[in-house]
Amino acid sequence: MDWMYTLSGFLVGLVVGVTGVGGGSLMTPLLVLFFGISPATAVGTDLLYASLTKSLGGWVHGRRGTVDWRVVGLLALGSVPASVVTIALLKYLTLDEETLRSLITRVLSVALLLTASALLLKNQIKKFARRRDGTVYELHHRYLPAATIATGVVVGSLVTISSVGAGVLGTVALLFLYPRMSAVKVVGTDIVHAVPLTAIAGMGHMALGTVDFVLLGSLLLGSLPGIYIGSHLSARVPEQVLRPLLATMLLIIGMKMVLY
Q1: Which candidate, 204, 259, 231, places its Cα nearest to that of 54?
Q2: C-alpha atoms less than 13 angstroms from C-alpha of 112 in its C-beta half-sphere
Q3: How many angstroms separate the CA atoms of 71 and 77, rounded?
């Protein structure tokens, strides 16, 4: 089955390279629904997979200067402690396998449906942030740091339990909170923030024993060339076509996870 994992990693990497999103949203459900991997192991393995694959993207954005490090710090101030607390709760509660499976599956299905909705409504959110005269609505600077930290708490908790949300949900939150930030900086900031978050969450799952390292290696073997090829194809494939297709796919997967 190792070559099937590698092929799956390649296909998901291709989608991530072309669209910039879809890693955890596609990989975790694929491992659970298609390969029959337990939800906890799928999430734990996918978190380490995400931290390793996004490290390269974060490094590139850092070199290009397309990262708002202050915003990264505020998000991490909320998300990293939230991730640690979530892992500690999972360990403290010592849930039996069936209960843990049910919890992760439910959170995963909600995260997938939220991600699909965020993809579909991305343009509407941008328009909502603009007044009729073309200027943008902005949260008062006094409340912006607290709102950013609170966003980090929500994203950190969601990602730690489901491995979904760091990409699309993080991006949409940044678009809403920082409407003046350029699109490339939003993406770069979100990717860099996802690296420590998924690494901490992944190491937490490793401590819980829910990481399969053979599976991780097989996925990386396919995903890295997939992301490389996809990033070169991204300019040739229109986003207006890709985004609804990806959102529809996530909606279908999310509904299947609800019934899983």
Answers
A1: 231
A2: 27
A3: 10
pTM: 0.81
Q: Is the dihedral of CA 100, 201, 220, 164 positive or negative?
A: positive
Instruction: Concatenate the DSSP letters of all residues of 186-237 into one string.
Output: HHHHHHHHHHHHHHHHHHHHHHHT---HHHHHHHHHHHHHHHHHHHHHGGGS
Instruction: State both tokens at 245.
Output: 């297709």
Find the length of the chain.
260
The crossing angle, in degrees rounded to 10, of helices 183-208 and 69-93 is: 20
Q: At which residue do the structure tokens 């993207």 appear? A: 57
Are 86 and 160 spatial neighbours (Cβ–Cβ below 8 Å)? yes
Give the span between the Cα atoms of 52 and 45, in whole angstroms: 11
Tens digits of residue pLDDT in 88-105: 998 888 777 677 778 888
